[in-house]
Amino acid sequence: MTTPDNAADTSAEAPGTTTPAATGVAARDWDTASADPQYRAAVVDLLGALAYGELAAFERLAEDAKLAPTLSDKAELAKMASAEFHHFERLRDRLSGIGEEPTGAMEPFVAAYDGFHKQTAPSDWLEGLVKAYVGDSIASDFYREVAARLDEDTRGLVLGVLDDTGHASFAVEKVRGAIDADPRVGGRLALWARRLMGEALSQSQRVVADRDALSTMLVGGVAAGFDLAEVGRMFSRITEAHTKRMAALGLAA
Amino acid sequence: MTTPDNAADTSAEAPGTTTPAATGVAARDWDTASADPQYRAAVVDLLGALAYGELAAFERLAEDAKLAPTLSDKAELAKMASAEFHHFERLRDRLSGIGEEPTGAMEPFVAAYDGFHKQTAPSDWLEGLVKAYVGDSIASDFYREVAARLDEDTRGLVLGVLDDTGHASFAVEKVRGAIDADPRVGGRLALWARRLMGEALSQSQRVVADRDALSTMLVGGVAAGFDLAEVGRMFSRITEAHTKRMAALGLAA
């Protein structure tokens, strides 16, 4: 992410990533780490979830590009959509590379993402921009949280995709400009941003409840099940970061 | 294009491109050629028309990706959409590079493309595939027709974008498969393909009537106006190529 509000984080590790990985998997490569079937299942889930997330984001950003007031705004959103598609390609190719059928890996996450997007179809251009920014930022926070829990090969891929995000900074400028021009817009968009975050959390929690291996890995690989409280703390860190970004954008709660 | 039905054309010049350029512009570079204000205006029109065409194609392919029956079909259409976006970027950057405001250059063509897409929204996945294939092929034929009439720099750009098309060959396979499985599908899709071509011609003729400089260049740069009959012949060559491709696809008229 190179958006103004968290640019300072990019050289240091984000708060969540300093937790040492309980399984010590971070020091291993994929071949070694994937000998553990639970770890392998978790990574396949993770790559499937990220891949479908990128494909769904592509589709929604392209759809939201229709709301653009000018051709150059439309081109900016199309550019973000295209970047998401290339992330999808990298994640899908990685799934194929480790011998997994990408479609099968993505299927379990289709309902959650489609549910999220269905519940959060923007009704105008500014809502679309806030959604693009919030989505990009939450994805970035999540990628960071999860990176420290991964073997070095998978971590390289996840951080590589992360490096290439941050296309949403133009959204920040446009939203700030709109709020400056009419401060009442800020109230409406603040409600919208809370709704986006609420819907994202609700869909994520559904995924956590459904996907044991993934959830276990997310909290550091406690072997016999996972600590729901730790998942809660992760969500809580992501929510806090979101709240700070929204405040910086002039969308205080 | 690398689609089966015209693969043989790719090393030789397409029929329309063997006409010698009446202005001799093909031997000049952009700096020399653009000293003629009418030529410059024609190229700005052309790049604007192609750029908006690519952006509109991006948007429609992304929209049509929603009709995909499987995730991998969706990804194929998303890939085509993303490729169109990158064509758009090259054409837009070229407009900026020659000191033109891309939005201004694209605006005159928005109505024609939007009109085309509005009149030809596919009602199902197969119609979407046929549209992707027909659109890609017509664009390719048109790029070839026009390339011979351009200065060497602009020609390089246009042929470069052309080289990178042909993502529609997967559409050919899918459509053939569907017709084999149920021959009645062929009749419906043949009607659809004719409607696509009819709508494309009708929108193109509107553009030709509106944009004098562009039309003059398209017919070889007759200085004092242009020969409508020659434009007609160009459309006729493109239509014939389309008819042959449709027949090869099992969509005879």
Automatic annotation (TrEMBL), chains A, B:
Q: Which Pfam families match?
A: MiaE_2
SUPFAM superfamilies given in the database record: Ferritin-like (SSF47240)
Gene3D superfamilies the UniProt entry points to: 1.20.1260.10
Which residue ranges are recorded for the region named Disordered? 1-25
Spell out the InterPro entries in the cross-references.
Ferritin-like (IPR012347), Ferritin-like_SF (IPR009078), Ferritin_actino (IPR059125)
Q: Where is the composition biased (Low complexity)?
A: 10-25
Q: List the CDD domains hit by this protein, alphabetically.
A: Ferritin_like
TM region(s), chain numbering = none
Domain Ferritin-like intervals: 37-221
Q: Can you say what this protein is called?
A: Ferritin-like fold-containing protein
Question: Which source organism?
Answer: Streptomyces kaempferi
